[in-house]
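Example 9 (inverse folding). The structure is encoded as follows.
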């Protein structure tokens, strides 16, 4: 009987040593958790806000405005706001550059700018704060059911009101980042090309009439 007990004990020690041999030397549970955390960070979806603006000089404002809307619409963009000949569109970030190239065909590009703002850290920090605030709010609701005095009820309700305001504020920031990072913002301002005055027209006519004099054989 004792011989069988020693036999099973030896097997248990053997399997235990084999199992630990698969772990890297010096590795611990904390090390594995750190590695898992690093992997999670690599798979985090980046939140980047793309913003672009263009100032276009065009021949005709009204017709160019119509063509502008068609160009953006054909590439999946939508009109967000318009004031006169100042337009603000929402387009997919992957199609922003192509949309700007299409807009540039309307006339002469006077100004052009593109910027990107990475707000990934802010977004996920706010998500953590939001989850913590919601969890705290739930705990206070549970305490409210167990409150025995008016004073306790008033204190808990005051804290619940504060937490509700905090949740609304953080949720608003999270939603704004989500919306702005999902679609890029493209602002386009149209202005009419400067037309030459009476003396300008005379100068253009003289140039056209005499330019042959400056052509070398």
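The amino acid assigned to each position is listed next.
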């Amino acid at each position: 009987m004792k011989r069988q007990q020693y036999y099973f004990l030896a097997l248990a020690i053997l399997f235990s040593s084999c199992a630990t041999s698969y772990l890297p030397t010096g590795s611990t549970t904390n090390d594995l958790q750190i590695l898992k955390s690093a992997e999670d960070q690599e798979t985090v979806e980046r939140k980047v806000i793309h913003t672009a603006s263009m100032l276009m000089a065009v021949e005709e404002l009204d017709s160019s405005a119509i063509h502008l809307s068609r160009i953006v619409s054909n590439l999946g963009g939508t009109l967000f706001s318009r004031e006169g000949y100042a337009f603000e569109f929402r387009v997919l970030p992957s199609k922003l550059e192509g949309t700007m190239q299409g807009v540039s065909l309307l006339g002469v590009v006077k100004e052009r700018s593109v910027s990107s703002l990475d707000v990934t850290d802010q977004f996920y920090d706010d998500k953590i704060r939001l989850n913590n605030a919601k969890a705290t709010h739930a705990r206070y609701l549970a305490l409210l059911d167990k409150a025995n005095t008016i004073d306790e009820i008033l204190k808990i309700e005051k804290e619940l009101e504060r937490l509700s305001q905090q949740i609304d504020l953080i949720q608003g920031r999270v939603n704004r980042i989500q919306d702005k990072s999902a679609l890029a913002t493209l602002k386009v301002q149209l202005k009419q090309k400067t037309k030459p005055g009476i003396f300008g027209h005379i100068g253009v006519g003289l140039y056209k009439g005499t330019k042959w004099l400056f052509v070398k054989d």
